[in-house]
C-alpha cells in the first residue's frame, strides 16, 4: 500500500464546509400563521381575564348586599312562640259550570214561540202582563217606575234562538242576584223587514212562561218606549 499524503488545512476546511447542512428558509405563509395564532391566544387570554374580573365584581357586590342586610337586621329579635295556629284557608265551593249550562239550555228549550198570550195580556196600549194572584197595584207601580231598573238585556243583533237563550240565562242570573226589576230591550224593528219588531211578541211569550216573572209592561218613553219591556221578578223570599 502506498502512503497517503496528509491533506492541507485548506482542503480539510473545504470538505467540512461542503458536508454541513444548509438551514431551510422560512416561508411567508408560516409567519402569517404564527402571527394569527399569537393574536388568537392573546384575545382568549383577554376574554378570560374579563370574565374573571366580572365574576370578582359580582361576588363583591353580593358580599356588600349581604353586609347591608346583616346591619339592617342586627337589632331584630325573633318573636317568642305564642301557641297560635295559622287557620286553614277557607275552602272554595266548586261551581258546577256544566250543571248551569245544562240548566240554561233546558230552560231555553222549554220556552215556546207558539203559546197564545192574547188572553194573558192587558188590553191597553202598553200590552202589559200580570200573573194571577198578583195585585194590579204592582203593575201600576211598574208602569210609574216605582222600582229601579237593576239590570238590562239588549237583544239587538241576535237571532231568535240566540235571543231565547239570552233571555233564559238573564232571568236566571237576575233571580240569583236578588234583582227585582229588569229591562229587556227587544228593539223597535226599524232595521227589520217591513220595519216591524221581530222579537217583541216572542219576548212577551217567553216572559209569560217563566214563573219568576210576575208582571211586565212596555217601558215608558224615557226607558225605551215601544222598544223595551220592564219586567218585575219575584223576590227571593217569595
Describe this structure in words.
With 238 residues, the chain is of the alpha+beta class. It has a domain at 113-233: Ribosomal Protein S8, Chain: A, domain 1. The protein has helices spanning 9-19, 28-72, 97-109, 136-144, 160-176, 200-208; strands at 129-130, 151-154, 181-185, 213-218, 228-233. A five-stranded mixed beta sheet has the order 1-4-5-3-2, with helices on both faces. α5 links the parallel β2 (151-154) and β3. α3 crosses α5. The protein is elongated.
Output the keywords.
10% strand, 238 residues, Ribosomal Protein S8, Chain: A, domain 1, five-stranded mixed beta sheet, 5 strands, alpha+beta
Concise account of the structure shown:
This protein is α+β, with helices and mostly antiparallel strands.
Amino acid at each position: 500500500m502506498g502512503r497517503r499524503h496528509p491533506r492541507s488545512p485548506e482542503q480539510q476546511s473545504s470538505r467540512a464546509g461542503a458536508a454541513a447542512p444548509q438551514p431551510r428558509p422560512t416561508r411567508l405563509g408560516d409567519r402569517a400563521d404564527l402571527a394569527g395564532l399569537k393574536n388568537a391566544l392573546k384575545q382568549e387570554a383577554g376574554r378570560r381575564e374579563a370574565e374573571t374580573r366580572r365574576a370578582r365584581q359580582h361576588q363583591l357586590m353580593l358580599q356588600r348586599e349581604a353586609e347591608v342586610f346583616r346591619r339592617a337586621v342586627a337589632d331584630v329579635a325573633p318573636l317568642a312562640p305564642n301557641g297560635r295556629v295559622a287557620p286553614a284557608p277557607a275552602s272554595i265551593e266548586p261551581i258546577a259550570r256544566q250543571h248551569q249550562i245544562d240548566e240554561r239550555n233546558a230552560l231555553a228549550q222549554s220556552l215556546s214561540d207558539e203559546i197564545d198570550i192574547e188572553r194573558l195580556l192587558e188590553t191597553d196600549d202598553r200590552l202589559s202582563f200580570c200573573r194571577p194572584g198578583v195585585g194590579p197595584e204592582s203593575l201600576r207601580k211598574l208602569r210609574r217606575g216605582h222600582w229601579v231598573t237593576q239590570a238590562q238585556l239588549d237583544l239587538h243583533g241576535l237571532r231568535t234562538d240566540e235571543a231565547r237563550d239570552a233571555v233564559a240565562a238573564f232571568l236566571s242570573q237576575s233571580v240569583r242576584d236578588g234583582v227585582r226589576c229588569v229591562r229587556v230591550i227587544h228593539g223597535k224593528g226599524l232595521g227589520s223587514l217591513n220595519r216591524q219588531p221581530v222579537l217583541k211578541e216572542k219576548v212577551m211569550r217567553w216572559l209569560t212562561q217563566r214563573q219568576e216573572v210576575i208582571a211586565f209592561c212596555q217601558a215608558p218613553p224615557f226607558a225605551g218606549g215601544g222598544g223595551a219591556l220592564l219586567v218585575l221578578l219575584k223576590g227571593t223570599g217569595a
